[in-house]
Amino acid sequence: MKPDTAIRRYQQRHIEIDLLPVPGGPGEWQHVLVIPAYRECPSILDALRHLSAAASPFLAILVLNRPDSDPDNSANQSLREAVRRLPGIEGVSGPCQLNRGSALLPFDTEAKLGPLPAEKAVGLARKLGCDLAWQCILRKVVTSRWIHCSDADARLPADYFQRTAGLSPDVVAATYPFVHVPGTDTACNTATALYELRLHHYVLGLEYAGSSYAHHSLGSALAVTADAYAKVRGFPQRAAGEDFYLLNKLAKVGPIVRLTGDCIELASRESDRVPYGTGPSVTRISSGDLSPAQFYHPRGFMALRAVLHYVAAYSRSPTVSLHGSLLASGLDPLLAAECEQVLKDMGLQAALDHCSGHSNNSAQFLRHFHQWLDAFRTLKFIHALRERALPQQTLTELDEWQPRLWPGDEAGTALQDLIHSHWGWTRQDPGRW
Question: Cα–Cα distance between 389 and 354 in angstroms, integer?
Answer without folding.
Answer: 29
